[in-house]
User: What shape does this take?
Amino acid sequence: MNDTFGDQFNTTASAGQAQPEQKSEGIVPVFVQQVMCAEEGNFQMWGMTFNMVTIVGIVRHMETSSTKITYTLEDHTGQIEAHYWLEEDNPSKSPDVMVNCYARIYGSLRQHSGKKTVMIFRMFSLSGANELTTHLLEVYTARYKAERLSQKRPSDFMPMHQEHTDNSNTAGLTPHQSAVLQAIRNYMDTESGISMTQLHKSLSYIPGNELREIIEFLVTEGIIYTSIDAEHFLST
Amino acid sequence: MSFEPRSIINGKLLREFMGKNVSVMVKIEGDYTGQIIKAKTTDQVPVRISLSEPIGGNPTDWVEVIGVVSGADMLRAKEVIMFEESNQEFDSESHNMLVNIMNNTRDFYATG
Assistant: This one.
């Protein structure tokens, strides 16, 4: 988006947006106050950068000039100016919104003589009160999800089956394989271990032939062994 | 119009926001032509809303009242915002849940 409009709006575009290393991640729903507190450039939050924001607010003022329409948009946190640039070959085409009614904008942040503004790409009147609720919820989701993602360390992305066991034997097992192993381990204090029938019963979600394959694999790997007969198992 | 930030609240929070700027979604009940109208909040609290001027036109079912809390069940409206008519009924339960989230989250403006 920035590339398309970059040349035309070089004067208002802030320095931050020119830096190619800033990886931006799409549209983020925000409140006006979040934008006002933001650093210059693309909107950043918890280490994520967004090249566009979406704001839902009451249109408080509209002013049309030959090249653009300037809107003042207000939500419960603040007011912000937003510019809709008119198309040269179709200057009568403008958003269908009314003063003192809600509208949604999609746009990118600009800084103009120290003042934050939004360059509007799309603008609509709100489809109903539910859209307001949705936006507000989305703003909260985006804000707290970004924080949670920023706190995830690589270790948090380990496959689930590795989190539940402290035994190095289980590393690299599939969830089904470790379920079978766990079931066998649960019978460790019995002399003969768990029988095939019992395994079938307690792990009914694993198909019979897959269960046999898993057993075979675990035996080959030396993780389990057969006890009183070929149908009973203990873990090493 | 000078801007003052407002909190989005529901009926049960009115007491805590006495004298403060708020925004409350309400369903107008009965006559809407007078200076004081009756309404219900998303958490079913009956409220009375005093208007500086009567609501012009035919209000939608649910409206947003922007104003100041003047009593445990009273709002002094600065304005009443109407929404576009939609086939979809207003999901007041979800909005009420939203209000609870908004008033129970911390450090919203922190950015890391």
About this structure: Chain A has seven helices and eleven strands. The interface with chain B takes residues 33-34, 37-38, 44-47, 58, 60, 74, 76-79, 100-102, 125-130, 132-133, 136-137, 140, 143-144, 146-147, 150 of chain A (CB under 8 Å). The longest helix of chain A spans residues 129-151.
